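Structure first, sequence second, as always.
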């Protein structure tokens, strides 16, 4: 696993590699303050990568002299997280830190995107290999400025090269006041007239508000909730999905009266509670054999569709931290009872934030059980880069008619959303019809 080399003088701690593909993390909470003496392996901060929390421990015993980040800020792997010093130097540093934070223009909670997730306590060891980024020469030959993401954003909006702005903050950092002051001087760079070559990240971040938008009424506010953490990551994923995949939704209903009776039999034999969800998962796995175009992901960067052989079934889980989508890998090889057990384990891992990063990635198809909260039909958003998602509504008793006779049955609503770039409308309808047929024929579903 790649990493970063920690300094031998123990003067500062570099944010280490948090897992494969993870290049940055959001600082959720500081567990220490300037002036605190920490022991080796004592947790100093809580970081969030994707949808799991990471407790970052101190690599050695020392006194915290500087916290290099604000709660809600995105910290890049390889950046200095904390600095160490003596109790005397820490006391001197603590007071100006608050003043600089005020001058820098507020929080950095909109700083960017977090990728991947890791759970459990991070162990700091000699496995780190990369160097920490100290002030380095930029592309224009100037020293790269030290600045928070929020200050860099201000500079971009004003069309200023932040590397040309003299920093007056602690350690030579460029503050928001420095940027605004430079904007009023002769060194101001002309505002760009065209969009930059590199497209900005899709993360919901603070940008210039178009004049046509109405102002926000800030009166009578009961609570202000920072737009960060899991909620922001959900927004990022949904934003990417709706802007990339071409959604269409088809709905149908399944008479699950016989299936519900079979479920009760299974639950009695197993001696455990069993919902209809594992049966629906089994139906999806079987239907994907007949309709493999829905068991796929889109590689937009490579302009190709990757059909998958194994069914890695994502199951949306609602937690107090927000929506999480753990994945049952190789779901097609599991029995109904095994699927039920797997879903229960994944749900518990999501709710207590202990789930491993690998179990939150690699999905090929997603199921969302909106019925567990009383919902019926939905228009689910695809878990990009997958190409389809099935929302399962709450099964309810209804009066049904068949071959001229009326009876009371248990009906389950189903809503399928597909990426129209990959799945034609007719194929989506055929897939959903296959799922309905399987759910209405328990013998074929379980024994077929």
């Amino acid at each position: 696993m790649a990493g970063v080399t920690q300094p031998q003088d123990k003067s500062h701690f570099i944010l280490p590699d948090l897992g494969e593909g993870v290049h940055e993390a959001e600082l959720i909470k500081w567990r220490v303050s300037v002036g605190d003496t920490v022991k080796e392996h004592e947790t100093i901060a809580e970081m969030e990568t994707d949808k799991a929390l990471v407790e970052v421990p101190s690599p050695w015993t020392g006194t915290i002299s500087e916290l290099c980040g604000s709660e809600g800020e995105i910290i890049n792997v390889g950046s200095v997280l904390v600095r160490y010093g003596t109790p005397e130097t820490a006391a001197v540093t603590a007071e100006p830190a608050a003043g600089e934070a005020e001058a820098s223009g507020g929080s950095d909670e909109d700083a960017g995107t977090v990728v991947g997730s890791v759970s459990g306590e991070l162990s700091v060891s000699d496995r780190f290999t990369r160097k920490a980024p100290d002030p380095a020469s930029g592309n224009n030959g100037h020293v790269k400025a030290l600045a928070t993401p929020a200050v860099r954003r201000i500079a971009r909006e004003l069309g200023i090269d932040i590397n040309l702005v003299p920093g007056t903050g602690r350690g030579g950092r460029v503050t928001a006041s420095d940027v605004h002051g430079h904007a009023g001087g002769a060194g101001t760079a002309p505002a760009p007239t065209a969009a930059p070559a590199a497209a900005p990240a899709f993360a919901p971040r603070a940008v210039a508000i178009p004049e046509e938008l109405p102002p926000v009424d800030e009166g009578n506010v009961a609570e202000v909730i920072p737009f960060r953490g899991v909620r922001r990551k959900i927004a990022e994923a949904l934003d990417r999905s709706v802007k990339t995949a071409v959604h269409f939704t088809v709905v149908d209903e399944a008479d699950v009266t016989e299936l519900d009776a079979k479920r009760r039999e299974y639950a009695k034999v197993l001696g455990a509670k069993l919902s209809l969800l594992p049966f629906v998962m089994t139906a999806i796995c079987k239907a994907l054999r007949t309709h493999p175009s829905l068991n796929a992901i889109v590689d937009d960067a490579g302009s190709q569709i990757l059909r998958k052989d194994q069914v890695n079934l994502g199951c949306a889980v609602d937690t107090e931290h927000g929506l999480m989508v753990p994945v049952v890998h190789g779901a097609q090889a599991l029995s109904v009872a095994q699927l039920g057990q797997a879903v229960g384990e994944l749900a518990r891992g999501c709710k207590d934030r202990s789930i491993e990063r690998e179990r939150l990635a690699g999905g090929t198809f997603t199921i969302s059980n909106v019925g567990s909260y009383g919902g019926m039909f939905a228009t689910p958003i695809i878990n990009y880069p997958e190409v389809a998602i099935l929302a399962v509504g709450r099964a309810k008793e209804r009066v049904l008619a068949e071959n001229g006779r009326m009876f009371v049955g248990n009906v389950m609503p189903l809503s399928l959303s597909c990426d129209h770039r990959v799945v034609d409308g007719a194929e989506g309808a055929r897939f959903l019809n296959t799922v309905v047929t399987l759910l209405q024929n328990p013998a074929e579903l379980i024994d077929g």
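Margin note: The longest helix spans residues 87-103.
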